[in-house]
Amino acid sequence: MLTVESVLVTYPGFNGLYDFTLPRGTLAAVIGPSGGGKTTLFNALGGFETLTSGRMTFDGVDFTTSPPAARPTAMLFQDHNLFPHLTAIENVALGIDPGLRLDAAQWRDADHALTQTGLGGMAGRLPAALSGGQRQRVALARALVRNRPILLLDEPFGALDPGLRKEMIALVDALRRERDFTVLMSLHTPEDALGLADRMLFIADGRVQLNETPERVLHSGASELRRFLGR
Amino acid sequence: MAALAVGLPVLVALMGLAMAGGGLDPAALKQAHVQRVIVFSTVQAFLSTVIALVVGAALALALARRAAFPGRATLIALLSTATVLPGIVVVFSIVALYGRSGFVTGTARALGFEWGSWLYGLPGILIAHAFQNIPFAARLYLHALERTPPEHHRLAAGLGMTPFAIFRHLDWPRLKAETAGLAALIFLLCFISFAVVLALGGGPNRATLEVAIYDALRGEADFARAATLALLQVAIGLGLTLILAWRTAPIAEEAGSRYALLRADRSALPLRLWDIAVLIITALFIAPPILSLLSGAFFITTLVTPDMIRALMTSLALATGTAFVATLIAYAMARGAIAGRRVLYGGLAYATLAMPPFAMVAGLYFALRPLANVMALGIPLIIFINALMALPFAYRLIETPLAIAHQRHGRLAQSLGMTGRDRLRFVEWPLLRRPLFTAAALAAALSLGDFGVIAFFGGSDFVTLPLMLYQQLGAYRMDEASATALLLALLVFVFALGALKETGHAHS
User: Fold this and answer.
1) CA distance B420 to chain A (A)
2) Are residues A102 and A121 in the same domain?
3) Cβ–Cβ gap B151/A79 under 8 Å
4) This model's pTM is above 0.90
5) In the sheet that A61-62 helps form, which strands lie side by side, from edge to edge?
């Protein structure tokens, strides 16, 4: 269980107050207007934000003040997830050892992770020789070898075509079922999550306004949500 | 047209060199003196480059890792200042600080240390070149480091990378990408260095080719040797420039990110101590020469003499002319590049870097001597040569926005039948106004600080501020020199910093 308890992040002109729980193994889609506090929540969970107050735990273990690498989280961004001078497999291997000191078995693990994300045979390619979707698959493969129970995906597929986007979300769904990951994934197009996500968090004005099944969120009559969806 | 304006003089100069009065003197290359000059030029340029790159990279890394400390903005402003100070002003500052009666030497003497005369020769040249090029390298490296996507540093933190791994995987690839082009440029600038080497070299053997050409032309009137040295200089310059053009990657700006740049290695203690040491040492090296210029304020009254005012007027007139000519040629060449001859014009703009002022002057001198009294052509020649020296920068500044303007609106303008003046007014002017102004200001700044060509043409009745400063330094009139240096530095700032600010805005 992921528990976010009265987590307060303050900036001049903005304050985010988050309070919610997600059962272990949940795939949660995070939606909301830009500037509403989605990225701030991801940063707080990933360890890139100084909290004014509050507490975050996973399965009872407090990680509120842990440094980013010591948290139960792995993070994926929309862009720049790979180091351009390293090959696909080296980028994955960084998830096993950030200094690239791996033994033969660990290199095989990295290669296996690439196969799991559908990139068998691409291990030696540089990021520049991969498509946008393939690059995100490499990043997912790294998240797999990191093997952290919480996956934070901040608009990970926003730059991809609709068909590819759905394919990638399905891949994330399959991987989390296999590994029992808890996934928070922010999305531009809420419909992408229908049928796959267990939960949908609607965040606006720095608050989690709704935390329900996607169907119920999308059909709720909340005025802010209607404005966000353009209905 | 534009190609002719630039290419023709370069060709004429080359021909002039080739057919120099009395022919070339290949034997000159075998003379021990000439060989010493070549070796010395190479060694000092190599050492200057290594110092600039190593210290510049350390400084850039320290500034990148320490994103907020009191005085950071001041330090960066000092770096910009050091980069734009004219060579002859740098010479003044170094002498004022480390010279016989300089502040550092004086303090040491008061403490009981007697150093003797150590500045003139390699030490002085290296100090001056380090002062000019460390800030230059640091600014460029820092810019490269700051273009790292913030995601990469978040990934590094999330993966638990050590500071060394961060250096290896995040910083080193970016530094490495800049280094080849930067090294070639700094080596070239030091190799053709004139003012610093002439004033601080302290002897005919400790010279660059530029200084040797100047000596051969002006001092010994040995034209054959001047021509031979100039050709050699052009050949070496051309080689380095080719590396430069080849290794200077087009500026690829990464897409902006939604995240702030937070470096994961900012809190490691040993690294923090190292960075603080680097920052303090470089600040102690860069700041005092700049502060020493302020001493000129005490002697500001020495500026009010008829000679001084005439020198100021001459400098300003030359700068205005240079700004105008450089901008015009750069614009014409950029137009040519848009019309499809990008390689030709891009190459031509760089070629002027390979043609250092004295090689150019020597060539034109020989080519025009049968036709006219070259010394009488001084003013237009100085303006023209200074404009050519500003061209590589001016061209780059103007070509990029012009290409963007045409990419964005070229088809629309064509379909509307817009040509000539209308196109300039509606399509190009909005995007080009600032770059044109910037290019003009930069050309003016370069011309104001120029102490190259003027050393050849200048005389008792034709003096610019840099030449005046050189004469005052030569006569050890340090009080007057300090006032002249301050005035010159301030003038150059007004233009150069204005120009740099403009480019800064254009990027944001």
Assistant:
1) 40
2) yes
3) yes
4) no
5) A61-62, A53-58, A2-11, A14-22, A207-212, A199-204, A27-31, A182-186, A150-153, A73-76
Within an 8 Å CB–CB cutoff, is residue B158 touching chain A? yes
What are the structure tokens assigned to B358, written together? 């004295």
In angstroms, the separation between the Cα of residue B2 and the nearest Cα of chain A is: 38
Chain A interface test: which of B154, B167, B257, B263 (most A C-beta within 10 Å): B154
Q: How many CB pairs under 8 A join A and B?
A: 70
| B66: closest CA of chain A, how far (Å) | 17
Task: Indicate yes or no: CB of A94 within 8 angstroms of CB of B157.
Answer: no
Question: Looking at residue B131, what is its pLDDT?
Answer: 96
pLDDT of A60 = 93
Domain boundary among A91, A125, A147: A147
Q: Using an 8 Å CB-CB cutoff, list chain A residues near B268.
A: none
Of A107, A127, A147, which residue constitutes the final position of a domain? A147
Q: How crowded is residue B26: how many other Cβ atoms within 10 Å of its Cβ?
A: 10
A156, A135: one domain: no
| Chain B partners within 8 Å of A100 (Cβ) | 165
Partners of residue B155 in chain A, C-beta under 8 Å: 75, 77, 81, 94
The distance of B282 to chain A (nearest Cα, Å) reads 31
Chain A environment of B157 (Cβ under 8 Å):
47-48, 67-69
pLDDT at site B20: 61
What average pLDDT does chain B have?
Answer: 83
* pLDDT the model gives residue B23: 62
How far apart are the C-alpha atoms of B333 and B353, rounded to whole Å? 16
User: Is there a single domain that holds both residue A155 and residue A228?
Assistant: yes
A144: which chain B residues are within 8 Å (Cβ-Cβ)?
A: none
Domain of B363 in residue numbering reads as: 2-507
pLDDT in tens, B192-238: 888 899 889 877 778 888 888 888 877 777 777 787 888 888 888 87
The CA-based angle B23-B374-B88, given to 5 degrees, is 100
DSSP label of A126 = -
Task: Work out the pLDDT band at B388, boundaries 50, 70, 90.
Answer: confident
Return the closest-CA partner of residue B192 out of B224, B239, B225: B239
CA distance B90 to B401: 33
Q: Which residues of chain A have a CB within 8 Å of the CB of B258?
A: 39
Tell me, yes or no, whether A153 and A143 share the same domain.
no
The count of structural domains within chain A is 2
The confidence band for B506, taking pLDDT boundaries of 50, 70 and 90, is: very low
Which ipTM value was assigned to this complex? 0.79
Contacts of A26 (CB under 8 A, 6+ apart): A2, A182, A183, A198, A199
Cβ-proximal residues to B450 (8 Å cutoff; 6+ apart), any chain:
B86, B318, B357, B382, B386, B389, B464, B466
In tens, the pLDDT along A25-62 reads: 999 999 999 889 999 999 999 988 889 999 999 999 99
Closest Cβ–Cβ partner in A69, A77, A94 for B151: A77
Give the model's confidence band at B102: pLDDT under 50 very low, under 70 low, under 90 confident, else very high.
confident
Q: What percent of chain B has pLDDT over 90?
A: 30
Please judge whether A94 and B255 are an interchain contact, meaning their C-beta atoms are less than 8 angstroms apart.
Answer: no
| pLDDT at residue B24 tops 70 | no
Give the chain A residue whose CA is nearest to the CA of B267: A67
Degrees, nearest 5: CA angle B358-B363-B367 = 150
| Full domain range(s) for residue A111 | 80-147
